[in-house]
Amino acid sequence: MDMLELIPGLLQRNDSKIVMLVADGLGGLPQQPGGKTELETARTPNLDELARRGICGLSIPVKPGITPGSGPGHLGLFGYDPLKYLIGRGALEATGIGFELQGNDVAARANFCTLDAEGKISDRRAGRIATEESAPLARKLRAVKIPGVEIFVEPVKEHRFVVVFRAAGLGDKVHDTDPQETGVPPLAPKAHDAASQQTANIAAEFVDQATKLLAGEKKANGLTLRGFAAKPALPSYEQVYGLKAAAIAVYPMYKGLARLVGMDLVGQAQTLGDQVDMLHANYAKYDFFFLHFKYTDSTGEDGNFDAKVKRIEELDAVIPKITELKPSVLIVTGDHSTPSMLKAHSWHGVPTVLAAEHCRTDACQRFGEADCVLGGLGQFEAKYLMSLALANAGRLGKYGA
């Protein structure tokens, strides 16, 4: 039996509060054998105190050895089996900016990139171009016209934008055009199956016209497409967990994930401090809160060990303002690891701490990989984190006689 089928029959209503703080890409690696990871290097007195009074472990986002994208990583944390409920990044980005996908839509997350004179990628993110520069360029691409297809182009943030193709019979099984490396040209859109060939053809024509429109731009003179996705259907947090849930995030993709599982988007926070303020302002209205912190991931992807350490310390500094609310359950974790030495997502387990009145504490004294691997939660699949949260909040009854 799937957990999402099991849990509704065990639910018990109460007034408990659950807070899940997700530091994107939290896990890391030491710079040399025997050294410390970014999390272990950071000064984190508040997270360490949480570890001492809680229970720790390493979460496995999908399966051992499998490197997850952000979508599967978060779906696992939300309790949805990421192997069963697969959502493409395009749908997440589109939903996150409030675009209402229809049944005959296929959305793609697009990145502006920098192409050299030979058409090869010299910067996959166009120097992380500022939103003020990228948004007009995204809107410029609305001039692309393809007979028989409605095309929607919407700015997102920095180098990111969304493209939605609307036409009958579009499949969403199309390979990304981002080669994930520099010094090579963008890939051609390639269909996984016959049903998606029309989508691949449309995407190729869009890229061709868009690249011509961007010619002459110094930074954003090219683009790549990722995460082709149709509109997904997921059971909601209210249906499965009996929770009125709120999401407090900055980046549209994570807002999109939250909306797709039925969370309300709360506020227009731009900083971690804003997010915690929003938590306080809305604390009486919801049972569950998802807070997302992006910059532990982006600094890891940049390969900047020291910057990731500082971002972790920034995260640690807000913990007291969360704990002063005395949530029934407070979880701090990540959706995946992003070691700065790899400059990419990885398969490594993610440090996780769960603090609650009746949790069985362990011997962990610090919140870091070396302690968490010995913690009471062990190495567990992330999809079980929500059932652990519900149990510790007194929201799950007994199974069977």
Question: How would you sum up this structure, described in words?
Answer:
This protein is an alpha/beta fold and 401 residues long. The chain folds into two domains: 229 residues, Alkaline Phosphatase, subunit A; 138 residues, no CATH class. 31% of the residues lie in helices and 19% in strands. It has 14 helices and 13 strands. Helix 11 packs antiparallel against helix 12. The radius of gyration is 21 Å and the shape is globular.
Structural class: alpha/beta
Give the spatial strand order of the biggest sheet.
Answer: 9-8-10-1-11-12-2-13
Q: Helix and strand succession?
A: HEHHEHHEEHEEHEHEHEHEHHEEHEH
How much is the radius of gyration in Å? Answer: 21 Å
Shape: globular
Characterize the main sheet.
8 strands, mixed
| Overall number of domains | 2
List the total number of helices.
14
Q: How many β-strand stretches?
A: 13
CATH superfamily of the largest domain: Alkaline Phosphatase, subunit A
> What is the CATH architecture descriptor of the largest domain?
3-Layer(aba) Sandwich
Mean pLDDT: 95
The span between the termini is 18 Å
At the third CATH level, what is the topology name of the largest domain? Alkaline Phosphatase, subunit A
Give the strand content: 15-25%
Low-confidence stretches: none
CATH class of the largest domain: Alpha Beta
Give the proportion of residues in helices: 25-40%
Main attributes of the structure:
alpha/beta; 5-stranded antiparallel sheet; 14 helices; globular; 19% strand; Alkaline Phosphatase, subunit A; 8-stranded mixed sheet; 2 domains; 13 strands; 401 residues
